[in-house]
Design brief:
The chain has helices at 5-14, 29-36, 50-62, 95-103, 121-130, 163-167, 178-196, 202-215; strands at residues 19-23, 42-47, 69-73, 87-93, 112-117, 133-143, 146-155. The chain is an alpha/beta fold. The protein has a seven-stranded mixed sheet with strand order 3-2-1-4-5-7-6, sandwiched between helices. A hairpin with a 2-residue loop joins strand 6 and strand 7 (146-155).
Length: 219
């Protein structure tokens, strides 16, 4: 199983574990890849809709892993039982959706959660801390014209982040593509600022001006 750069980065941060739950699995690429690499012994491929599970089932069968990867209809972690997953992957969803998942009670036995939010990354970082977890690693993944952020977190306390840290995490500052990431974020914010200059709600413009001031510190 060959993964895209984004999914490979997610899989790398998931790493070796006894059991994995891939939430929003879609095609089940990540559990199949980790199983083929011998990094996990069992997995749950979960999704809220039947369609993705049907696609996942085809790929799992093709890989000959039906006895090791279980399909599960689940809204987030709602249908994952205690001690079924040591590591959880939630990739390719909006940051608000991921944040709501983090707020809910989680099954016992989870040691590590790997997140790849498509939006609202500062919000996700805040929710990690607000819900009794700490960030242990972050990676940037460049794919086509986008740069994705992948975050690994575990249970723990006393990790102090400033408001600026939630926007530009200390964990990505040494990443090989950090400079490229900052330039891209700066460009996005400047473009959005231009679009909102004449908006009635001045809060949008003020928000982008603030983000620009943060990103410019790293240029």
């Amino acid at each position: 199983m060959n993964l895209t750069i984004r999914l490979k980065t997610v899989a790398d941060l998931a790493g070796k574990c006894t059991s994995l739950a891939d939430i929003g699995t879609d095609h089940a690429y990540i559990p199949i890849y980790l199983m083929q690499k011998g990094l996990i012994s069992k997995a749950i491929a979960a999704d809220i809709n039947e369609g993705p599970l049907e696609r996942a089932d085809k790929n799992i069968r093709k890989a000959g892993l039906s006895d090791k990867i279980t399909l599960r209809l689940s809204n987030g972690l709602d249908n994952i039982n205690d001690n079924e997953a040591e590591t959880v992957v939630i990739a390719g969803m909006g940051g608000e959706i991921i944040s709501r998942m983090l707020e809910k009670p989680k099954p016992a036995g989870i040691k590590r959660i790997v997140l790849q939010p498509m939006t609202d990354i500062p919000l996700v970082r805040r929710k990690i801390h607000e819900n009794g977890m700490i960030i242990t690693a972050e990676r940037l993944a460049a794919e086509k014209d986008k740069i994705y952020t992948v975050i690994a977190c575990e249970y723990g306390t006393c990790q102090q982040f400033s408001d600026e840290d939630y926007i530009v995490s200390p964990f990505i500052k040494d990443d090989p593509i950090f400079d490229e990431y900052i330039k891209k974020q700066l460009g996005i914010c400047k473009n959005n600022l231009e679009k909102t200059k004449n908006a009635e709600n001045k809060e949008f413009s003020a928000q982008f001006e603030y983000l620009i001031s943060i990103y410019q510190k790293f240029i």
